[in-house]
Write a structure and sequence with these properties.
heterodimer; A: 99 residues; alpha+beta; 6 strands; binds zinc ion
């Protein structure tokens, strides 16, 4: 999966120094909450799409809500989400109908 | 400013934050991400940014409003606010069951302000507040708490059921924060943490940049909506504007007098986090009533 190297894979922050494996790949996160959140997001996308792996997740927004597109090959799966800021659990996950 | 710990200088504060951020502490990292910058900067630069954040020229009251708007009424409004625009029975019942606990804590917090303050305007304000929210003034002016329970009843949920339901973990966590603050905080911090939240129903926020109101006011004229629901929503809609503005003015005045601006900001930001959790719990609870 394509992720940033010097900034948090979820929130793009350069602070912190928390490394965790997601789908067998070591990634940089600013804190464990972002790591947990990122993992929940990836697993939820895989569950809903049936995809085995993702090439990339494009993320816009911040803790108040994010709009994302998971990419696999030429396909894109769009969704809106929000995490529990204390635990990284998914609070909202809504697929966005493609136009 | 961040975790409630006070520092004498901005560079001491910067050093403290950098230490915690280096060990990926979520509280400190997220605070930096949200309030200062997501870019890693050195101690000197951070100290300058912290000072700018703490001393920005806007008044405390308008900072509180702007922060509230950005948090709950920005381009991606809070999901509870979105749900309340045209609320379903399930959303309203989730509101009733979780908010009941919030109002109980509200009274405890107001009582704590009264116990701690030596200012008469604050005492009077909080007494009025307790009467409006909890005591009520006879059958002509039932308390907000009573209107909430009536809304539940009108939607088919007996008040005994509401009163005997424990709060969900997210509400519980939020209540713990407010309870702790009420116990240990300065009364100005407690006031900011509580009354800042009343901005949720302030319909004037739209003029200051909010993307929507708490709910679509057309509900108040909708004949399909039970009277008790309208009574509850109308109460908040009409009362809270002047009420919350008055509280913010008191907070601003006394934060300045006691030199508590930093602590007030910190308590307020933490209170917004707690409130966010509680709003999520209302939605979560609402799901219990979705198919019922
Ligand atoms: Zn992050």
């Amino acid at each position: 999966m394509k992720v940033r190297e010097a900034a948090c894979a979820l929130c793009n922050s350069e602070w912190g120094d928390h490394w965790e494996e997601v789908d067998g790949q070591r990634m940089f996160f600013c804190c464990w909450v972002c790591a947990r959140a990122f993992d929940h997001m990836v697993q939820e996308v895989k569950r809903r799409t049936g995809w085995e792996a993702l090439d990339e997740v494009k993320i816009e927004g911040d803790y108040r809500g994010r709009e994302c597109a998971a990419i696999r090959g030429a396909e894109a799966y769009r969704f809106r989400l929000r995490f529990d800021p204390e635990t990284g659990e998914l609070l909202v996950f809504e697929p966005i109908a493609s136009v | 400013m961040v975790c409630g710990r006070s520092s004498d200088t901005y560079s001491a504060l910067a050093e403290h934050i950098l230490k915690w951020a280096a060990s990926s502490d979520p509280g400190h990292v997220m605070w930096l991400n949200r309030n200062i910058t997501k870019q890693k900067v050195g101690e000197e630069e951070l100290s300058g940014l912290l000072e700018a954040f703490a001393t920005d020229a806007t008044t405390l009251a308008s900072w509180m409003k702007q922060t509230f708007i950005e948090r709950f009424y920005g381009p991606r409004p809070h999901p509870f606010v979105r749900a309340l625009q045209r609320p379903t029975r399930a959303t309203l019942l989730g509101y009733v069951v979780e908010h009941q606990h919030f109002l109980r804590q509200w009274v405890r917090s107001a009582a704590s302000v009264i116990a701690k303050t030596d200012r008469r305007d604050v005492t009077s304000y909080e007494i009025d507040n307790i009467v409006t929210e909890f005591g009520g003034q006879g059958s002509d002016a039932p308390a907000h708490y009573e209107l909430l329970l009536r809304m539940g009843e009108a939607l088919g949920l007996p008040r005994e059921d509401v009163l005997s339901t424990s709060p969900l973990p997210r509400t519980k966590q939020a209540l713990n924060f407010w309870a702790k603050l009420a116990e240990r905080g300065h009364w100005v911090e407690i006031m900011a943490a509580m009354h800042g939240l009343e901005l949720i129903a302030n319909r004037d926020l739209v003029e200051e940049g909010a993307s929507m109101r708490y709910f679509d006011p057309a509900i108040l004229k909708d004949e399909a909506v039970p009277e008790a629901v309208k009574d509850f929503l109308r109460e908040g809609y009409e009362a809270d504007v002047a009420h919350s503005e008055e509280a913010l003015a008191l907070v601003e005045k006394y934060a300045k007098e006691f030199g508590l601006q930093d602590r007030v900001r910190a308590a307020y930001l933490q209170s917004l986090d707690a409130f966010d959790l509680h709003l999520n719990a209302r939605l979560e609870r609402g799901r219990d009533y979705e198919s019922a």
